[in-house]
Design a protein that fits this description.
The protein is globular, with a radius of gyration of 14 Å. It has helices spanning 15-33, 74-94; strands at 3-9, 41-46, 57-63, 100-104, 115-117. It contains two helices and five strands. It has 123 residues and is an alpha/beta fold. It has a five-stranded mixed β-sheet, with helices on one face. Helix 1 (15-33) links the parallel strand 1 (3-9) and strand 2. Helix content is 33%, strand content 23%. It has one domain (3-117): Macrophage Migration Inhibitory Factor (2-Layer Sandwich).
Length: 123
Amino acid sequence: MPMIDISGVPHETSQEKLVQLEDSVEKRMATAMGMEATMFHAYPHVSPTERTRPRDMIFGKITTAFFYENREEEETQAKARAATNAAAIAIWRCYGGKYTVEVFPPDYMDPSLRTRIKAAPAS
């Protein structure tokens, strides 16, 4: 069952926003991987204080054995990149582009398959 741990979530994030974040990430990753959203679990970790949070960044880490067997194949790597991209977009949009978001693939995959979306310029 694919999971994504989301670290650096601002401590002032409301319960409603956390539910929205979980749903959005799960649905986007499911679409990217061609699976049902009920197969995914997103776990946002809220920083207890602003001091303990990475400044202006939210990180995601995908944990799954889904890609393991064929991890060297181009198609599998494309799916992993699509999953990191989908999760990063969902997190970035949930916070209106306020934070840089970086999502990493499972440990057994090439870390270059990560997705990083920079924070939108402050207006």
